[in-house]
Fold:
Amino acid sequence: MADESVKFHTSGAVGVITLDRPESRNALTPAMIGELGQAVTACASPTVRAVLLTGAGGAFCAGADVKQLVDTLEQGGPEAIAQHIRQLADSLHHRVVLPLRRLPKPVVAAVNGAAAGAGFSLTLAADLRLAAQNARFLMAYANIGAPADGGSTWLLPRLLGEGRAMELYLASQPIGAPRALELGLVSQVCPDEELARHALETATRLAGGPTIAYARVKELYERSWASTLESQLDAETETFAQTALTRDLQEGIRAFAARRQPWFQGQ
Structure:
């Protein structure tokens, strides 16, 4: 992509999205959210089988650009800031968070440095979070008298439980990578200098995996919160049976029986 604040490229079958405003710790502006949405849309291509989301410089994402919020408030007053925030959140939610959650492929967030506010929420939209040793996670919203957005009020309680989620919001204090690992907020912590390589290796491994099965389990997990056990069991049965029609599952069981590595093609 030509835009300077979000970079997108492919590495093999991995779509790599990099937030690239390091001078502002990758803080989000309306234009940047639009560019991020374009990058997520690009990842819908069938040639992209996994997604890696990260930040440039020493931070993942510091959340919304607070300087821009202050300027809007000072120049336009309360109505202007309310409208600005409404548009900012609506764009983030519908152009980035929902599309990331609905991508039928695994999304990996490589958290290098601070992930605060909407940046924290953005990590939750990923399916897998890897953190550098120097990563810091901070809801931050309460520090400016704000409620939370970016899907965090839905995603975080499901990841950590309502009590832990509320604790992180009320405290609005940074937690380090080891504590994030202990809570289950991230799955792995890497030395700072190894995160980029390890995250790309992880995304590449996932891209070579049974992406149809990944997508369908992602859907099953999503629907489980509104399902009874009986309806979820029925959904599992139907999903498994439908997936048996794919070449990937057929290749998988043949490879297992032959004691060889399967070759999954997303078909």
